[in-house]
Specification:
With 327 residues, the protein is an alpha+beta fold. The chain folds into two domains: 141 residues, 3-Layer(aba) Sandwich (Dna-directed Rna Polymerases I, Ii, And Iii 27 Kd Polypeptide, Chain: A, domain 1), CATH 3.40.1340; 125 residues, Immunoglobulin-like (Sandwich). It is built from seven helices and 16 strands. A hairpin with a 5-residue loop joins strand 1 and strand 2. About 3% of the residues have low confidence.
């Protein structure tokens, strides 16, 4: 209150206590709370004034040096089917504006490949990808690898179309969150520090409404692409063969809200049936283990998002506007 501020009174304290209302007729099979936060906005260090030195810029350079050392110690990408891609002579480019590293590929092109590291506390942005791809193309690198802990949907789309838009092929490489452990992480050649992941393929379609009901939509997870830089091809896996996928029916470009959840590849459903000690229709379990969502109405944002968890635990996000829905 303005009066308390004027009198310099301490703020009132609110005590939060976990006292949920108990209902013995309902059996809970998940935890009581689930929180998802927005990814912090990365700081554009290149926009700082020349000649200035800040703690943030020093921290960013330290992060790049650490990522470069990890890449040297773990220069191998593990791919589907026990295939690998190994880099040698990983080093910092002599002169660069956006690129973080360069390397050679044994038995590959004579030209080196380029790397750019995403921010330590944030998602890879579309601006970072564009500037790195433009510089890599101008310097005649054969390929651009974008390494990050998370990536914005628009940035991922640009990477997939980098060859057509900028003139150089690009691949997104997911870095394990274990790298945040710093010196506690054991960087061995056998460690799966970096992994190449694809983009979920979904189909958004309209559902015929009955008796003047509001328009509804439905999402089907068709599959997941895994890029193989050795053979330069994509391997496809079916939507019913992923560990988990989630649907946000009203995605706001900031926070992913799980509206529907599915766990196709799991053998836990039979155990869950026994634990609940009830009788349920088989269609319920088939739906939870399926690749097709339940019908839903349009949200205020006019777009949906699908998050897929792959075999390595990576979160792969794809966003679609409801205007793209098929009839």
């Amino acid at each position: 209150m303005l009066r308390s501020i004027a009198n310099n009174e301490p703020p009132a304290e609110e005590v939060l206590m976990d006292r949920p209302e108990q209902n013995s007729a309902i059996t809970r099979v998940t935890g009581p709370f689930c929180f998802e936060a927005t990814i912090p906005t990365p700081l554009d260090f290149e926009e700082q004034k020349p000649g200035t030195t800040t703690v943030e810029s020093e921290s960013a350079q330290s992060f790049i040096d650490r990522m470069l050392e990890v890449l040297r110690k773990s220069p191998m990408l593990r791919l589907e089917g026990n295939k690998t891609a190994t880099f040698k002579n990983v080093r910092t480019p002599a002169k660069t504006l956006s690129l973080s590293a360069e390397a050679m590929v044994p038995n590959g092109a004579e030209k080196p490949v380029a790397f750019v590291f995403g921010p330590e506390n944030g998602a890879v942005s579309e601006k970072l990808v564009y500037e790195a791809a433009r510089e890599a193309h101008a310097k005649s690198y054969s390929h651009l690898y974008v390494i990050g802990f998370a990536i914005q949907p628009n940035a991922r789309m640009l990477i997939d179309k980098s060859s057509e838009v900028v003139g150089i092929p690009a691949t997104y490489v997911q870095a394990t969150p274990d790298l945040m452990m710093g010196d506690l992480l054991k960087n061995m050649r056998s460690s799966q520090i970096f992994s190449v992941c694809g983009l979920p393929e979904i189909e958004l379609r309209k559902v015929k409404s009955k008796n003047g009901a509001p328009k509804q939509y439905q999402v089907e997870l068709l599959g997941l692409d895994v890029f193989d830089p050795i053979e330069m091809v994509n391997h496809k896996s079916k939507g019913g063969d992923v560990p988990a996928w989630f649907l946000d029916t009203d995605y706001n470009d900031m926070c992913f809200h799980v509206s529907q959840a599915f766990f196709p590849r799991t053998g836990a459903w039979e155990s869950l049936k026994k634990a609940l000690r009830g009788e349920y229709e088989e269609s319920v379990w088939d739906h939870l283990a399926g690749a097709v969502s339940a019908p839903f109405e349009a949200g205020d944002q006019g777009q949906i998002a699908v998050k897929v968890i792959d075999d390595r635990g990576n979160e792969l996000l794809v966003v679609k506007s409801l205007r793209e829905a098929r009839t």
